[in-house]
Amino acid sequence: MGSYTNGVVGDQSGASNGGGGAAAVDKGVDFANYFCTYAFLYHQKEMLSDRVRMDAYYNAVFQNKHHFHGKVVLDVGTGSGILAIWSAQAGARKVYAVEATNMAEHARELVKANNVQDVVEVIQGSMEDIQLPEKVDVIISEWMGYFLLRESMFDSVICARDRWLKPTGVMYPSHAHETQAYYGVDMGALTKPFSEEQKKYYLQTSLWNNLHPNQVIGTAAILREIDCLTASVSDILEVRSNFLSTVTLPNTRLCGFAGWFDVHFRGCKEIPAQKEIELTTAPSVDNGTHWGQQVFLLNPPIRVTEGDKLNARLNSILDSYLPPFRNRYFIE
Ligand SMILES: C[S@@+](CC[C@H](N)C(=O)[O-])C[C@H]1O[C@@H](n2cnc3c(N)ncnc32)[C@H](O)[C@@H]1O
C-alpha cells in the first residue's frame, strides 16, 4: 500500500531500477517519502488491522498449501513478517523475507516468537540490491497502492520476479484489475477558493475516499487487467483506457469517478489455485479496506439519469509536480 496522512497519498516514485528500465532510484527521496513510514509499527499495524486484506492473504495461502508445501518462497517487502510466517506455517521449506526498513528487526523478532526461524530468513535491504542463494517457487507480496498502481511497489515485485522466480513459479497475487465507476455526492458546500484550489490541484489528480456503495451511481468498468507473471514496468507506468458506464439511478448528479482495484490469487497455468481468492477494494459497507477508493472529481457536476450511457477515457501521466500531485489524470 502507499503511505498516507489525512487522506493524502504519499509517493514512491521511481522506487526501483528493476525489470524494464524504470527511473533510477533516488533513495534519499524514497526514504523520506515512503520507506520511513513503513519503519514504524503504527503503520504496519494499520495494515495488519485491515481484515479484508488479511483474510484474503490468509485464505489464499492456507487454502492453497500445495503452492507452499516444501517450496522456496520470497516475500517482497515483508514488513512485520506476517506473509513470510504464514508461508512457513503452510509448509514452505525456506522463506526469504526481504524488507528495506528497520522493520526487518521486528520481523526477525516475530519470526522467532512464532518458532519459524529455521525456515524464515529475514534479509534487510532493498529488493533491487539484495542477492539470494537460489531461485524461488513462489513470490508473495502485498504491493498494491491506491487505485492499485498509484505509488505502488509493483515495479520492485517485477524486478524480483525477473531475477528470482523459477520459470514454473507462482505469483501471490497472480492477477489484478483496476476498476472505475461514477459516483454522486453533494458538493454544494464548496466555497469559491476551495473550488479554485480544486481546479488547480485536485481535479487533475485523485483523492483518497471510502465511498458508501449508495454513492456509486453507475455500472463499474474494468480499466485494465494485469497478469503479475508477465507485466513489465512499462506496462504499468501510465494508464490509457476507454470505458463505458451506464447510470443506474434516476435524476442524480455525476460528481466524479471512483477507481479501485481487485487482486486475485489464481496460481499459474501449470499449478492453478485449489481455491481462488479475491481481494476487492470496491465501495462496501462492511468490508472496506485501508486502500479505500481514489476519486477523480468533476467540476461542475453533471445532471444525469438512469440509463444514460457515458463513454469516457482516462489517461494518466507522470509529471514533475511534488507528491501527491505527481500522477496527473485526464478524463475525457
Ligand atoms: C504494504 S507493506 C506490506 C508489509 C507486509 N508484507 C504485510 O503484508 O503486512 C510493504 C512493505 O514493503 C517494503 N518495501 C517496499 N519496497 C521495497 C523494496 N524495494 N525492497 C524491500 N522492501 C520494500 C516496505 O518498507 C513495507 O514494509
From TrEMBL:
Residues 181-314 form the Protein arginine N-methyltransferase domain. Pfam families: PrmA, PRMT_C. GO terms for biological process: methylation. Keywords: Methyltransferase, S-adenosyl-L-methionine, Transferase. GO terms for molecular function: histone methyltransferase activity; protein-arginine N-methyltransferase activity. InterPro entries: Arg_MeTrfase (IPR025799), PRMT_dom (IPR055135), SAM-dependent_MTases_sf (IPR029063). GO terms for cellular component: nucleus. This is Protein arginine N-methyltransferase domain-containing protein. It comes from Rubus argutus.
